[in-house]
Here is the input.
Amino acid sequence: MKKVLITRKLIEENFINIQNKFHVIHNQSDKKLSDNDIIKMSIGCDGILTFPNNNIHADLLNKLSDSIKIIANYAVGFGNIDIDTANKKKILVTNTPEVLTEATAEVSILLLLGASRRAYEGRIFAENKNWEWSSDFLIGKQMTNKKLGIIGMGRIGRAVADIARGFGMEIHYHNRSRLPENLEKGAIFHEQLKDLLSQSEFLSINCPGGKDNTNLLNKETLKYLPDGAVVANAARGEIINDKDMLDAIRVGKVFALGLDVYNGEPQINEEYLKLKNLFLLPHLGSATKKTRIAMGERAINNLDEFLNKSLKPKDQVN
Ligand code: DGY
Here is the structure.
């Protein structure tokens, strides 16, 4: 049997399945492994099943045993793995697309609604029992019939658009390239980010993270948003420049912000925590049992196809 290191705890259903296919070393304690742990524990392994909070950087990859031929990431994003170095080391990398589309799109909508309808402040009032209904109590922004801008019209962005159509929203998007009509479903393409932003009363970030999209929302670009826009990020923390976003919130350019992902997570910029018009979640995009099991199955299948069946795995990204 081929041997695989699993760097964090797998859900039981997945664990039962992977044990039938591989000899496994499982970090069941779920404590984050150090680089050294990963290097030592993977000696003699053929593959590694990693998770989005394992930073598989160049130096770590260079120190991995030559026996490692595949890294299967338990996430659709793979910015945590240095692909250039993986390529040099001829290590194949896979992700888990498709299966988390709906779950993550739901969270994008939750962020937009939670932020725009002031859910965090509402919870505080409810808990403190110091509120009374009144005509102007916690007035939020209504999402129905507004314009929604989506950055990144891949599967998740399109699923966000599908839900938002139910709110009567006019969909605008910015993407590397324009979608065919059947996928666009009437959404309006903007080749330039600034043109998309200038239409976005509500804005949902659903593009990949990584070098190309780091600081996409910054001092320069944020100014194109209409005053009082609502912004949600369920993609990756580095897409937003936190300092510039905080300035935009303070001057009212951004009415409210919903975040599921953060620069340097699990840390969160302390300044965000001081503001009430933020709706924050701890990276829950894909956190439903159905989705997490499906992600695990997808990662296991990728390992199985490559290591046991000598096939090109379905979700190879490099
Ligand atoms: C992903 O798959 O990239 C998600 O962020 C993990 O929850």
